[in-house]
Amino acid sequence: MENKFIKTKIAENLYLLRVSDNDTKYFEALWEIPEGIMYNAYLIKTKEGNVLIDGWKKPYSEKLLELLKEDLKDLKIIIVNHTEPDHSGSIKDILEYTKNKPLVLGTKMAGDLLKSFYKIDINFKQVEDGEEIKVGEYTLKFFTTPWLHWPDTMVTYVKELKFMFTCDIFGSYGIFDSVYADEINFDNYEPFIRKYTSTVIGAYKNYIVKNIDKIKNLGLEIKMILPGHGLLWRDPEKIIDYFYKIGNESIRSKKVTIIYNSMYGLIDPAILFTKEFIEKNGYETRVFKCTDKERPYISDIISETTDSSLIIYGISTYENDVFPIAKYILSMLSNKVNNKIPIIIITSYGWGPVVKQKVANIIKGTKFIIVDSIEFRGTNSKDDEKKIEEALAKLL
Amino acid sequence: MENKFIKTKIAENLYLLRVSDNDTKYFEALWEIPEGIMYNAYLIKTKEGNVLIDGWKKPYSEKLLELLKEDLKDLKIIIVNHTEPDHSGSIKDILEYTKNKPLVLGTKMAGDLLKSFYKIDINFKQVEDGEEIKVGEYTLKFFTTPWLHWPDTMVTYVKELKFMFTCDIFGSYGIFDSVYADEINFDNYEPFIRKYTSTVIGAYKNYIVKNIDKIKNLGLEIKMILPGHGLLWRDPEKIIDYFYKIGNESIRSKKVTIIYNSMYGLIDPAILFTKEFIEKNGYETRVFKCTDKERPYISDIISETTDSSLIIYGISTYENDVFPIAKYILSMLSNKVNNKIPIIIITSYGWGPVVKQKVANIIKGTKFIIVDSIEFRGTNSKDDEKKIEEALAKLL
Asked: What Gene3D superfamilies does the annotation carry (chains A, B) (predicted)?
């Protein structure tokens, strides 16, 4: 797919600058995103000069310069809500292109990071939580939102527009023709938000709650939310409520995520039995298997477990230990999903039954609850099927 | 590529049954093998009936039955040197096809595993270390070789032929037209043996030494080594010596393996500088990078580090911790390579310099030696380049 670069008018004097990135296979060098991702920057034209809010990833700098062109001559301010280079990566090229040394606004940490990332001499002004800056007919107001998703992060509220520019917060993966989230069905869009939020911000879920509470308590009227990824929200309540539910871990679907690894297929009959029993009980299943032919996307596993009612983890032992990829996935889930979701472990072992305790060690300190563990040597017996049924019956 | 199934005469009354497996993307559901793998079974025709040594992976059972056909009518013995299902996976189908209930020979653990893996009722006879069994004009002699690569493992020596059937031991990845290792250049074949051995048996390197010493001390004349994967050895000394060197960790090339992860390219200039400095000093480099577009094969990383003189690990921090994939790779190296190889760590951090101690914790208890750690925020300075030069100069 071609990458698309657009500049679209959102309101009087306000433009969305958006690139559709089909090149990134692994967002943050970690998350598989065949669905791609968009980076949104914003331009506000004021009587006193132009304001650029955030930017794009470095490889698209030149295209951003092309789209901005004349606007850069009169660039007065660059707001850096968040220094992660998917947003700040174009700043060096922009500063080199404009000779007028615009003021760069951000938190103290944003300033430090910009300098260390790009070794640039910038005209930086640190802004404080709640600070207001007037530029032409607009008032820019900044609120720090630490850990969403870095400690450097803030949002920018434009008082006269009642628009809030939130960078990573309320973002999503995916490439869309639409500009606004209300142009597509929420249920279709929701998986893209969930996947982005759980993978990128998952470890800081408690800060979602804190920061949303903080913003709500400001009592600001918000007419539009304009994030750094994904679509724009003309009905901010919808995304705020949804996002809050990810934060307080209350999103739950009638869905069971089944993850398993199988070196030679010995565990497969037990997993198939489990899957069928779950589906007979009216739950959807998502199955991720790690075999000699398939390796699932960790990004999808994280996203699907985030709103699951139950996790089944099928593990074949490896060298008398938990299978290495299962260890990796479990640590990722511990960091990114960490939620009061029950887990049933199903283990096929060769030399000895060691998995239960070792998995307990990996997820120690998380909110996950191992409710049962069914272990058998090689392939399962009828008796093991009964144990699986009993374990599931307690939960479904 | 088509999978090939061959039955080739190796000596009077002895046949190689070989399948070339192009279907397996991840051997053991772990190791990326675009080069494929071969499974070797062997048939000995004796005056008292046929002997089958090992077998193939389950998906190829039918093809194995086709190749064996008439031979199965008179199948007297199946030897299971090692129960891993890439060799034993065809046993159930073979037993169902032959009605004559052949004797299955293996160690006690092999018997237990066969029953639990395949839920089969077999005519199993446990053999002891050093035990001899006569069948027709041949004497089969068994020697246990525990942990090469499972605790169940043994080798079979046929006294009259002076041939040793070693299953996983002396095996390799790769698909070849040749039957014998001496038909191709050793230097070209060596990477396939190294990759197989380091990934599959790497964790049990000390057992390589123990078991080879044991076999050497038997004082047997060995005319040919016939492994379960890869090519056959008419010059056994060559592979025994090479294998021993992997075991006692004395294979070293004038080679430096550079592994790094880079979320946004900030660490790249430091890595490039390091690479060029190393090459200027006459060392080859192997570079594995984990970026938004590339993810290296862990199997190749393990193989290349196994005989490296130095490892450079470039790590960008992630959530104030070691980048998750770097953690995974480092634990895999700790388990599979674990060797007195010096490591230099190069770190680009954002929020804080935490990597050195955390990497030390991951590789704690291994033989790796962290000789230096160069940490910088964002991109490196000229001063950091000097530090890199100094660290390298001590080692190259």
From this structure: 3.40.50.360, Ribonuclease Z/Hydroxyacylglutathione hydrolase-like
A28 touches chain B (CB under 8 A): yes
pLDDT (tens digit, 9 = 90+) per residue, A244-283?
A: 999 998 999 999 999 999 999 999 999 999 999 999 999 9
Q: In whole angstroms, what is the distance from residue A316 CA to residue A260 CA?
A: 8
Any idea which fold B255-393 has?
Answer: Rossmann fold (3.40.50)
Test mutation, A292, A331, A376, chain B, max B CBs within 10 A: A292
Which residues are CB-contacts of B201 (< 8 A; sequence separation ≥ 6)?
A: B148, B149, B168, B169, B207, B208
User: What ipTM was predicted for this assembly?
Assistant: 0.96
Dihedral sign from CA coordinates of B390, B392, B394, B396: negative
Over 90: is that where the pLDDT of A287 sits?
yes
Query: What span, in angstroms and rounded, lies between the C-alpha atoms of B385 and B156?
Result: 56
Extract the tokens encoding A156: 């920018």
List, by residue range, all CATH 3.40.50.360 domains of chain A: 255-393
Residue B184 touches chain A, beta carbons under 8 Å: no
Written as six digits, the tokens of A64 are 């951003």
B5-247 placed in CATH 3.40.630.30: no
Is the sign of the CA dihedral B353, B357, B361, B364 positive or negative? positive
The H or E element spanning position A193 is: helix A186-196
